[in-house]
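Quick question, first post here. What does this chain look like in 3D?
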Amino acid sequence: MSESYPKKEKLKSQKLIESLFQKGQSVSVYPLRLVYIKDPVTSDSSIKVGVSVSKRNFKKAVDRNRIKRVLREAYRLNKASYFNNNTTPLAFMILYIGKDGIEFDSIDTTMKQLLKKFTDKISED
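> Answer (accepted):
Ran it through. Tokens below.
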């Protein structure tokens, strides 16, 4: 898996997002939470990923967009080491649940912990 985040990997389907939050399971490492669902009805890619930041905690769109950019970049850099040999179709949403600003280095280490915890939980099932 390459270190890119192409359009076909982005979670955009409203139906899939609704089923993700209704039927999905979650894994958390503060300040990140990952909600996932196995075997979604997707045909393009084996993994669909979305990123979200609460408007309640970050009123300004500039702040929300910066956090989303940092989260996407941290995911993009770390996905190859965790999802290289993945064949199971997955859809997941990465949520930022913290209330304060972020630095890339701290989010990068947290993202690694979150993806490790997620892959461990997936392998158990």
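The first helix runs from residue 14 to 23.
The chain has one domain: 7-118.
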